[in-house]
Specification:
The structure is a single chain. The chain is an alpha+beta fold. The protein is built from 14 helices and four strands. The protein has a four-stranded mixed β-sheet. It is elongated and about 80 Å long. The N and C termini lie far apart (53 Å).
Length: 284
C-alpha cells in the first residue's frame, strides 16, 4: 500500500521534485536532535497532552491489557499493537514532537479499544467513566480552539494584509522573508519566490533554537530555487519580517543570504514600515 500511494503521487508531481522534497532533502530534519532544553519539555508537553486528551482510550487499552476476561475474549491482536508501536516510532523520529505527529498513533489503539468499549456498554459505572473522560477532553479542546491566547498567541497579520490590499492588485505577487503565510492567504496574493515560508532557506524548523547555527541545515537546492524564481518573476512587494522579529526571524536578517540581499538592494526600494516589518517595492 505504501508503495502504491507513493508511486501514485508521481502522477501529479514531477518525480525528481517529489523525491527531493519528500525524501532526499530531509536528513537534517530527521537526524538533528537539537537542544535538550527545547526537546525534553516538548516531549513531555506534547506526550502529556496526547495522553490527557485520550484518557478514555488509555483506560480502555488498560482494561484490555490487564483484564484476563478481555484478553481471552479478544485475543492479543499483535498486528494492531505493532501498528501502534510503528506510529509511536514515527511520531518520535527526529525528536520534534508536534501534536499532529501523534495522529498516526491513533488507528491501532482505536481498533484495539473499540470492542472493549462495546462490551462495557452494559456496565453503568464504566460507561459513565468513559463518557465523562470523553466529555472532559472535548470541553478542554473546545476552550483551547476557540478562546484566543489560551494555548498560545499568534502574530496578527491584519495591518500587513491591509497594506498589501491597498498597494497591490490581485494579480501582483508578494514575497515574505520569514514565516508568515497568513498574509498570503488573507491578502489573496500570489506567492513570490516559490516558497510559502523561508524556513527552508535558513534551516529553521520546529522545536529548534533559532540561531545562525541552523544555516547549516538549509534545504539542499533551496537558495538557488528561490533566487531563480525571484529573478524570473519579481514580486511587486517584499515584506521583511526579520525587522519585526516575527516567529524568531530577528535572528535571520535578509543578509544571511548575501545574494538575496544584493538582489533586493538592486531592484527594490524601502517604501514603508508596518508593525516593524520593512516593506520594499519593485522599482519602475
Amino acid at each position: 500500500c505504501a508503495v502504491l500511494v507513493t508511486a501514485s503521487a508521481v502522477l501529479f508531481f514531477p518525480a525528481s521534485g517529489f523525491w527531493h522534497w519528500t525524501f532526499s532533502s530531509n536528513e537534517g530534519f530527521v537526524a538533528s536532535f537539537g537542544s535538550a532544553s527545547m526537546v525534553i519539555p516538548s516531549f513531555l508537553g506534547q506526550t502529556g497532552m496526547f495522553l490527557g486528551f485520550h484518557l478514555a482510550l488509555v483506560v480502555l487499552l488498560l482494561v484490555r491489557l490487564l483484564n484476563k476476561e478481555m484478553r481471552s475474549r479478544f485475543g492479543l491482536e499483535p498486528d494492531l499493537w505493532l501498528w501502534t508501536l510503528t506510529g509511536v516510532v514515527a511520531a518520535f523520529t527526529g525528536f520534534r514532537f508536534f501534536g499532529h505527529y501523534f495522529l498516526q498513533v491513533l488507528p491501532g489503539p482505536v481498533l484495539l479499544a473499540a470492542p472493549v468499549a462495546a462490551s462495557l456498554a452494559a456496565a453503568v459505572m464504566w460507561r459513565r467513566l468513559v463518557a465523562g473522560l470523553i466529555a472532559l477532553a472535548s470541553i478542554v479542546a473546545f476552550v483551547f480552539a476557540w478562546i484566543p491566547r489560551t494555548l498560545r498567541a499568534l502574530p496578527d497579520p491584519t495591518a500587513l494584509v491591509s497594506y498589501v490590499d491597498r498597494h497591490t492588485t490581485s494579480d501582483q505577487s508578494i514575497f515574505i522573508w520569514g514565516n508568515f503565510p497568513e498574509v498570503y492567504w488573507r491578502a489573496d496574493r500570489p506567492t513570490g519566490g516559490d516558497f510559502v515560508s523561508t524556513d527552508f532557506i535558513v534551516g529553521l524548523s520546529g522545536n529548534r533554537k533559532a540561531s545562525p547555527a541552523t544555516l547549516a541545515d538549509t534545504t539542499p537546492g533551496a537558495i538557488p530555487i528561490l533566487l531563480k524564481s525571484l529573478a524570473q518573476r519579481p514580486p511587486t512587494l517584499i515584506l521583511d519580517t526579520s525587522t519585526g522579529g516575527i516567529r524568531q526571524y530577528g535572528n535571520y536578517p535578509m543578509s544571511v543570504v548575501p545574494q538575496l540581499r544584493t538582489w533586493v538592494s538592486a531592484h527594490y526600494r524601502h517604501v514603508a514600515t508596518v508593525e516593524g516589518v520593512w516593506i520594499y517595492r519593485l522599482n519602475a
